[in-house]
């Protein structure tokens, strides 16, 4: 197997980067960027068709915020994905709030997503309401709120979510099912 074909040990590179090795960051960035693109794409595919934030813009913003996070005590790849999902949630919520605060037709043109057909339609109000309801869920069941955050905002699979939270995939499925039912009930009020 050629050196270029070897899988990258993201955890080791994250630890080396945290410890100040600039070469680790150079090796990590292509892999990290690919992971961020995957998360962003999975998140934005469900947005409304007139969403002006492209996958690349979300990735770039998350990437810049991660560059400032080199002192995080990275546990592993799953921990990195969990932190990235949280950052993407914050970016999307901030974007929705700023977009919603502008006057209707505030000069923003439509920018097409650069990768896939949009399948679901979400209104800004629903997105912000989901963020508020998710905060209420976190107040009494933080793990279920994290499952929703990682799956919905981060686009993580059940197995990735289980690894990030240190629980079984069955626990993730149960939490996901219960949290979705609770959120749906809260948002239908």
Structure description:
There is one protein chain. The chain is mostly helical. It has one domain (8-105, 120-187). Helices cover 67% and strands 0% of the residues. Helix 2 crosses helix 4 and helix 6 packs across helix 8. The longest helix has 25 residues, at 77-101. Mean pLDDT is 75; it is low at 103-122.
The global form is globular
The overall pLDDT, averaged over residues, is 75
Low-confidence segments, given as residue ranges, are 103-122
Question: Would you tell me the structural class of the helices and strands?
Answer: mainly alpha
Q: How much of the sequence is in beta strands?
A: under 5%
Instruction: Give Rg in angstroms.
Output: 18 Å
What is the end-to-end distance? Answer: 58 Å
* Secondary-structure element string: HHHHHHHH
Largest sheet: none
**What is the number of independent domains?**
1
The percent of residues in helical segments reads 55-70%
Total of DSSP H or I helical runs spanning 4+ residues: 8
Q: Tell me how many strands there are.
A: 0
Q: Note the quaternary state here.
A: single chain
Question: In terms of topology, how is this protein built?
Answer:
Blueprint: H1 10-18, H2 22-44, H3 55-67, H4 77-101, H5 124-140, H6 142-153, H7 158-165, H8 169-187
Helix pairs in contact: 1-2, 2-3, 2-4, 3-4, 4-5, 4-6, 4-7, 5-6, 5-8, 6-7, 6-8, 7-8
């Amino acid at each position: 197997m050629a050196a270029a074909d070897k899988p990258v040990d993201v955890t080791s590179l994250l630890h080396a980067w945290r410890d100040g090795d600039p070469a680790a960051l150079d090796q990590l960035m292509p892999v990290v960027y690919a992971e961020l693109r995957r998360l962003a794409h999975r998140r934005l595919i469900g947005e409304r068709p007139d969403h002006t934030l492209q996958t690349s813009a979300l990735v770039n913003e998350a990437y810049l915020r991660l560059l400032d996070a080199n002192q995080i005590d990275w546990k592993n790849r799953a921990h990195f994905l969990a932190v990235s999902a949280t950052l993407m949630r914050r970016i999307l919520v901030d974007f929705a709030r700023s977009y919603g605060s502008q006057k209707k037709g505030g000069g923003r043109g439509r920018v097409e997503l650069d990768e896939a057909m949009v399948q679901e339609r979400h209104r800004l109000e629903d997105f912000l309401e989901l963020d508020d309801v998710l905060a209420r869920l976190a107040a009494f069941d933080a793990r279920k709120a994290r499952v929703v955050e990682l799956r919905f905002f981060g686009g993580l699979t059940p197995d990735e979510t289980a690894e990030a939270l240190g629980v079984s995939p069955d626990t993730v499925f149960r939490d996901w099912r219960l949290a979705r039912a609770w959120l749906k009930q809260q948002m239908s009020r």
